[in-house]
Amino acid sequence: AQNVTVDEIMTAYKQACQKLNCKQIPKLLKQIQEFKDLAPRIDCLDLKGEKLDYKACEALEEIFKRVQFKIVDLEQTSLDEDGASALFDMIEYYESATHLNISFNKHIGTRGWQAAAHMMRKTNCLQYLDARNTPLLDHSAPFVARALRISSSLVVLHLENASLSGRPLMLLATALKMNMNLRELYLADNKLNGLQDSAQLGNLLKFNCYIQILDLRNNHILDSGLAYICEGLKEQRKGLVTLVLWNNQLTHTGMAYLGMTLPHTQSLETLNLGHNPIGNEGVRNLKNGLIGNRSVLRLGLASTKLTCEGAVAVAEFIAESPRLLRLDLRENEIKTGGLMALSLALKVNHSLLRLDLDREPKKESVKSFIETQKALLAEIQNGCKRNFILAKEKEEKEQKLQQSASMPEITVTEPLEEGPAEDGRDGSAASTPEEGEEAGETPMASENGDAEPAEDDDRGNVTDSDSDTDEEADAGLETKDLSETPKRPDSADSATAPQPLLSPEKLRDRPPPLRIAEELQRDADAGSPAASPASAPSQGNERRISVSSPGRGHKIFVVTRVESLPERAASAARSWEDADAAAKPAEPQSPAPATKPELPAPRTNGTVPESAAGSATAPAVPSAGSDPERGDPAACESAAHDTPLPNGLKTDFARALPEASSDGDGKMGSCAAEHELSCSKNEQELEELLLEASRDAGQEPL
């Protein structure tokens, strides 16, 4: 309902109670009065322990009709078949809850479960269903199974102590093979046996790789059942993260199966084997499997009948493990020898953050050993603390790295600031990816992609970025970025003058391309023919933008803004002519290129790039065909041939001009070209230029 108020809800509920002749629930009235914001879902509707008969359930519709909740708690509400089916129908129709607790309702019967199954199937918002201690018997199970098979939105399902052993479990397991949404399945206290029930679970694990938590505590799985479950575990490539086998009468025989399976599991992070009589031999059987496994982070071995001998085997695993975070060894008879082994293992282990041991030292025949035990326990705790501090520091570094990775920092520097200083500052940013990685966070791969994938949350595996790739990042990428990166910084409001193309003779004797931006800067300052005179007037507007992003070289773009005033364009053209005259005697083949915004830099094969009309800036370096470092004369020559002349006689110009003239400032270029022709001081010189241009055009195929 739209725009309801708390008073309306109260009135409607009270009237419904009168009409149905049932008692109002004080606990409910109190909650309604405390409702604050009614628009989104309200946190909780708590009816735990209230007795709800059919009439009380019907009265609740006045509330469900008007507001929705995150949690609806109906634990121990003595629901009968009628009340349960009415409530579930309401919750389905009004999409009242995302979390529903119907635990400890022993009498909801077949019709109750049928309505619950219908609700599970039809509601898209129900994610969590808790039905602990609510028996799901043979005749009700098929409805629930069908609901789970037809893509239900449930993510968490609690069915502890729901009498599932036998046919109900078979139906559920078969249905869940198809289910892709369920992530957590809790089946504790169901008297599941080591034969048929375990075979069904093993089968489920073979086919379903979406369930992440499987809790089987307090059942009768036995070693025979563990063999079936291990068969299924071997098939899990991604999927099961937590397996709880607490109190299932497992022995050293079962540990042999598990030891053989562990090297194959890639997703299992938490394994709880507590309260099983595994013994020292069992831990020995498990040890090699654990060492061979690459995923387990938490291991529970509380009350598993271990002594010092077993603790030594566990210590060997700790010493080998680069990723174990938590280990529980409480309620075992681990004395001085075992504690010594664990203490030594912690000296070489840098990942273990928590090792649970009994606080009180065990009785020893030698009195002084009790003090030794206390000292060893303190040493072990200090080792864990040290690892914790290291992990915290690593995590902070990770976060800084993540931030800089997600948002490349952009700094606008002063026009004449020197590049190398910035480069030095950025050296640290470029080298930071060598720190550790964390689980769930994307590992920063080094430049050539040889980083190992990250293993887990508190352990970093160092990814060394090769030194030669760093140099590539500085040298190669610098040129590439300056020649290929953003073609138009922001040419919407003001026409942006092109970066000067270096004339071929300049290219030949040019130093390596590490600091092109600086080079241009210096040229511009010196006023050399290579720098476009058009950019000289705008020296004041010039900005450097340096972009640094982790694992990459430092790039510097020089952005030059030019007002699009005709006088300035004309004077630019005139001064260009003079520069041209100066450069001509030196090398007749290389008139430097025009600086019209609409003329793109031609590629070395003579074609004009398609982006002629769109991009208002030409790249700072000719395209990769003519490698400036090698100074290939032929390539440079052809670059010179293809460059359109200021007077526009080049054949390519005719193709580029119409597209360009559709641009906002299209007229400016043609005006400048006319201006050049009319204002040419030296007619003789102009004729020579025209002659040479026609000769060029004649030589070259279209």
TrEMBL record:
GO molecular function, one term: protein phosphatase inhibitor activity
CDD domains given in the database record: LRR_RI
SUPFAM superfamilies: RNI-like
Keywords: Leucine-rich repeat, Protein phosphatase inhibitor, Repeat
Cytoplasm is among the record's keywords: no
Chain segments carrying region Disordered: 399-679
Pfam families in UniProt: LRR_6
InterPro entries: Leu-rich_rpt (IPR001611), LRR_dom_sf (IPR032675), PP1-Reg/Actin-Interact_Protein (IPR051279)
Composition bias type Acidic residues, residue spans: 449-458, 465-475
Repeat listed as a keyword: yes
Similarity remark: Belongs to the PPP1R37 family.
Source organism of this protein record: Eudyptes chrysocome (Western rockhopper penguin)
Domain of life: Eukaryota
Gene3D superfamilies per record: Ribonuclease Inhibitor (3.80.10.10)
Compositional bias segments (type: Low complexity): 528-538
Biased composition (Basic and acidic residues): 477-491, 505-525
Protein name in UniProt: Protein phosphatase 1 regulatory subunit 37
